């Protein structure tokens, strides 16, 4: 009899988040809100984006030119894409770091990034639906490649 009541208590606790889980989620939301507030404040105070970027617009322009359909590129486009990429990477890293902290770790792992991608709706474009379409299992995250290129080639060969 106790066994059935223990099972139902465990099932009901799984259905409702605990107070600590709610606090963790609230903390995540606060951290993300602070991140975007800080980024917005920083962008409002910067006069020249081109000199304050972590990613080089010239590098992004080279990547854009690898597409044979691209004829001309406006001067602002690589700068805008560099800033957007920078913000994307920073937010994904912050979300992954919060996931690592939630799991009581101080080391960021690939699994933290994967978990964040799977849990965040606006990161669905990073989920590889075709990888597991034949076996019916859960879609996986697009694989990471150590050498840079998605086809296994060195990602530094962009001098086309």
From TrEMBL:
Region (Disordered): 1-22, 132-160
Keywords: DNA-binding, Nucleus, Transcription, Transcription regulation
SUPFAM superfamilies noted in UniProt: Histone-fold (SSF47113)
Pfam families the record matches: CBFD_NFYB_HMF
Single Gene Ontology MF annotation: protein heterodimerization activity
The keyword Membrane is annotated on this UniProt entry: no
InterPro entries in the record: CBFA_NFYB_domain (IPR003958), Histone-fold (IPR009072), Transcr_DNA_Rep_Reg (IPR050568)
All residue ranges annotated as the Transcription factor CBF/NF-Y/archaeal histone domain in the record: 55-114
Chain ranges passing through the membrane: none
Main location (coarse class): nucleus
Subcellular location: Nucleus
Gene Ontology CC entries for this record: nucleus
Protein purpose: Stimulates the transcription of various genes by recognizing and binding to a CCAAT motif in promoters.
Subunit structure: Heterotrimeric transcription factor composed of three components, NF-YA, NF-YB and NF-YC. NF-YB and NF-YC must interact and dimerize for NF-YA association and DNA binding.
Family of this protein: Belongs to the NFYC/HAP5 subunit family.
Protein name (record): Transcription factor CBF/NF-Y/archaeal histone domain-containing protein
UniProt organism field: Solanum bulbocastanum
């Amino acid at each position: 009899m106790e066994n059935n009541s223990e099972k139902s208590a465990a099932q009901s606790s799984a259905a409702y988040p605990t107070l600590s889980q709610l606090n963790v989620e609230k903390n995540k939301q606060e951290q993300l809100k602070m991140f975007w507030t800080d980024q917005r404040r920083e962008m409002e105070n910067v006069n020249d984006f081109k000199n304050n970027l972590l990613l080089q617009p010239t590098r992004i322009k080279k990547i854009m030119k690898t597409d044979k359909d691209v004829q001309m590129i406006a001067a602002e486009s690589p700068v805008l894409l560099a800033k957007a990429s920078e913000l994307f990477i920073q937010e994904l890293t912050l979300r992954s770091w919060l996931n690592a902290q939630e799991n009581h770790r101080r080391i960021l792992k690939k699994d933290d990034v994967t978990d964040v991608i799977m849990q965040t709706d606006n990161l669905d474009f990073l989920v590889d639906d075709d990888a597991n379409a034949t076996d019916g299992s859960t879609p996986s995250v697009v694989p990471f490649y150590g050498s840079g290129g998605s086809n296994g080639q060195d990602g530094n060969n962009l001098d086309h």
